[in-house]
From TrEMBL:
SUPFAM superfamilies per the UniProt record, alphabetical: MOP-like, P-loop containing nucleoside triphosphate hydrolases
Alphabetical list of SMART domains matching this protein: AAA (SM00382)
Record carries keyword Magnesium: no
GO molecular-function term, one example from the UniProt record: ATP binding
Keywords for the protein's UniProt record, in alphabetical order: ATP-binding, Cell membrane, Membrane, Nucleotide-binding, Translocase, Transport
Classification via Pfam families: ABC_tran (PF00005), TOBE_2 (PF08402)
Domain ABC transporter, residue spans: 7-238
UniProt keyword Translocase present: yes
Biological source species: Paenibacillus solisilvae
UniProt protein name: ABC transporter ATP-binding protein
PROSITE patterns: ABC_TRANSPORTER_1 (PS00211), ABC_TRANSPORTER_2 (PS50893)
Length: 362
C-alpha cells in the first residue's frame, strides 16, 4: 500500500497567456479513497484544478504529485484519472454498451473482457439490461449514470466530476447525490467533485475545499467549515449566517451589538476589531428582558419547517433567526444564544494561523 497522498498540489499557479493568474499558489493534499469537493462560485478556478489533475493543461509554476511523483508533464492518457463532464460528453451515435466500452476498445482489451467489465460497470450504476439502448432514449439521470459507468469501467484511481448534477432537476439531483456518495463508498475510489452548490457539498463530502478567486479559502470536513468558517467569504458562502462587526476586548470576552459577551476565543490582541458569526438556527427567541440582545422584528416569512425572522438591534445590526416560534412584526423580542454559538473571525487570517489558533484552545 502506497502511503503517499494520491494527489498533492504544491504552490500551483496557473496563468493563461497574458491574463491574471487563475490559480495562485494553491497547495492541498488528497488522500486516497475519500470524497472531496471543490466548492466555489463560477469562475473561481474549480474546472482549472480538475484539468490540471486530469492532465488537460499544465501548471505555470509549482508541482503536482501523483502517489509522490511529479506529474506536471505527464499526458492525460497516461494518468489513472477519469473525468465525468458537466454535459456528460457521451457519444450520441453509440449505444450504452459502446459508450462505456469505448475506452476499453482503445486499450485493445479482449472482447470477453470488455463485455464483463461493461456489465460490471452497468451493475454498479443500476443500469443492468440497458446495454443496447440508444443515448437519446435515456433520461437525464440515466445519461448521468452512463457517464459515471464510462469513467469507472477504466478502474481509475481517481474520478473527477465537474458539476455533474447541475443539469438535473432538484428531485433527481438529490437522488443522484445519494447515489454518487454511495457509489464512491462501494468502489473506494477517490472522487473529486466540483460544485457551486454549498448544500450539495455539505451533504456529499468527506472534505471540502472552498475556493474564491483562485485561492483555497478554507479546507476541512463539512462540519468544520460550517461551524468554524475562517472568514466572511466562507461564512457567507456556506449556509446562512449573521456576520456582525465587533471587538475582542480581552481573552474570552467579545463586544458587539452594544454589549459584552463571554466567548470561547482567545489569543487575539486586546481590543482587536473582529467580525463574529452566529448561525440563524443558533439564535433563540425569548421575552425581551430574558434576551442577551434586545431586537425589533422587521419581517417574518414562513418557510415550511421554520419561520425566517429578520430583526435589528439597537446598534443597527441585522439578525436573521430561524425559529419554530411565531413573532409579531414591529414588536420587540429578546434573542439568546450559547457561548459556543459565537464564532470570532479575525481579519485577514490565513488558514494555517486559524488552525494554529484553534489548536491552542484544545
Ligand atoms: N483556456 C482558457 N484561457 C483563458 N482563460 C481561461 C481558460 N480557461 C479558463 N479561463 C479563466 O479562468 C478562470 C477560472 O475558470 P474555471 O476554472 O473554468 O472556473 P470554474 O470552473 O470555477 O467556474 C475564469 O476566469 C476563466 O475565464
Ligand atoms: Mg467549471
Amino acid at each position: 500500500m502506497n502511503e503517499q497522498p494520491i494527489i498533492r498540489f504544491e504552490k500551483v499557479t496557473k496563468q493563461y497567456q497574458g491574463d491574471a493568474a487563475v490559480l495562485r499558489d494553491v497547495s492541498f493534499t488528497i488522500e486516497r479513497g475519500r470524497f472531496y469537493t471543490l466548492l466555489g462560485p463560477s469562475g473561481c478556478g474549480k474546472t482549472t484544478i480538475l484539468r490540471l489533475i486530469a492532465g488537460f493543461t499544465e501548471p505555470t509554476s509549482g508541482n503536482i504529485y501523483f502517489n509522490g511523483r511529479v506529474i506536471n508533464h505527464i499526458p492525460a492518457n497516461k494518468r489513472q484519472v477519469n473525468t465525468v463532464f458537466q454535459d456528460y460528453a457521451l457519444f450520441p451515435h453509440l449505444n450504452v454498451f459502446e459508450n462505456i466500452a469505448f475506452g476499453l476498445r482503445i486499450k485493445k482489451l479482449k472482447r470477453a473482457d470488455i463485455e464483463a467489465k461493461v456489465k460490471e460497470a452497468l451493475r454498479f450504476v443500476n443500469l443492468t439490461g440497458y446495454e443496447s439502448r440508444e443515448i437519446k432514449e435515456m433520461s437525464g439521470g440515466q445519461r448521468q449514470r452512463v457517464a459515471i459507468a464510462r469513467a469507472i469501467v477504466n478502474e481509475p484511481e481517481i474520478i473527477l466530476l465537474d458539476e455533474p448534477l447541475s443539469a438535473l432537476d432538484l428531485k433527481l439531483r438529490t437522488e443522484m447525490q445519494y447515489e454518487l456518495r454511495e457509489l464512491q463508498q462501494r468502489l473506494g475510489i477517490t472522487f473529486i467533485f466540483v460544485t457551486h452548490d454549498q448544500e450539495e457539498a455539505l451533504a456529499m463530502s468527506d472534505e471540502i475545499f472552498v475556493l474564491s478567486e483562485g485561492i483555497i479559502q478554507q479546507s476541512g470536513t463539512p462540519t468544520d467549515i460550517y461551524d468554524e468558517p475562517i472568514n466572511r467569504f466562507v461564512a457567507d458562502f456556506i449556509g446562512e449566517s449573521n456576520i456582525v462587526a465587533g471587538k475582542m476586548t480581552q481573552d474570552f470576552l467579545v463586544e458587539f451589538g452594544g454589549r459584552t459577551f463571554e466567548c470561547v476565543d482567545r489569543g487575539l490582541h486586546p481590543n482587536e476589531p473582529i467580525e463574529i458569526v452566529i448561525r440563524p438556527e443558533d439564535l433563540e427567541i425569548t421575552a425581551v428582558q430574558q434576551g442577551k440582545l434586545q431586537v425589533q422584528v422587521e419581517t417574518q416569512l414562513f418557510r415550511g419547517v421554520h419561520y425566517e425572522i429578520l430583526c435589528s438591534d439597537e446598534t443597527g445590526n441585522k439578525w436573521l433567526v430561524h425559529s419554530t416560534k411565531k413573532v409579531v412584526v414591529g414588536e420587540a423580542i429578546g434573542l439568546t444564544f450559547e457561548t459556543e454559538a459565537i464564532h470570532v473571525m479575525r481579519f485577514g487570517e490565513s488558514e494555517e494561523d486559524f488552525d494554529r489558533r484553534l489548536e491552542a484552545y484544545s
